[in-house]
What we know:
The protein has helices at 5-38, 44-72, 78-109, 115-140, 146-175. It is mainly alpha-helical and 176 residues long.
Amino acid sequence: MGNSFSDILREWHSFFSLTGEAAVTLMGLVFVAASLGASLVKTGSTASGIRAFVNPTIIHFSAVLVLASLTLIPTQGFNSLGSLLCLTGVAGLLYAGVVIVQLRKHHRRHTPVALVDWFWRACLPTLGYLLILTAALGLLMRVPFALNGLALAVIVFLLLGIRNAWNLLLWIAQHQ
Length: 176
């Protein structure tokens, strides 16, 4: 391996800068959409729906922002980035568990959650957090191409956020 870890991260700078900026921009749009949608329905299921459907979308975009920020810290090394990504992946898996519980509660108490929503809101986020953990372990073992797995996780979370934000906008349009 001829390159230092800083050189390797420098090659990824544009990717993580672009995805971090995209996540922040899309997060702002979700805040606007959620505030419009919250004024439409004033039932007991609204709070449950926001916790189960809107909050995870914000968390997905936040995950992209955190991952981009961690990789852009100029003094990162294999061990420091790997350790921080381990913490991020574990925290994400714990949050994915919380979302699954919230989806089950919403499904039982309010409206049935479609199978496709279970896939997009439970399965794929769990896969994304497992990708982060895999990348973290790869970095701790000093495998530079582990950043490819991290990039895949970032793409998964961006696509999840975009899909779920679009789903939110469609729901708002149907209820106006």
